[in-house]
Description:
7 helices, mainly alpha
Amino acid sequence: MSDPSSWTADGGGHEHYYLRHLQEANNTNAPTSSPTTQPGELWQMIYVGVVLLVMFALLISDKIGADMVMLAALTACMAGQIITVQQGVAGFANVAVLTVMILFVVAAGIQLTGGLDWYMAKLLGRPNSVQGAQLRLMLPIAFISA
Length: 146
């Protein structure tokens, strides 16, 4: 394919080589028909589309927690045999997913017990203006992140 004899010596460019290569690629006997969907695939596409629309509507409405909506969508895909149960739960074996799940539990525990309320009240106090509140937030965050 990259036969140097097909290259031209007109200024060092290989434009003619690339054009010739494209013409040869177009002349191959590649099938020109568009891929067809099998009847079994159509209902699966519609099913997944409906599941996604319902999932997005529930996420936007914010009436049900995002974790429950995602698990319900995953369960619907497993119940419809779009994915197998092994494929559905395989993502939970990932270390990153488990780490995030544990951090959500820790954050919920801190929020429910009020573990940071006293510290945040001492740190932030009662600022008199928006700029004062931003300054009280910015300085400790800048110090901790440095």
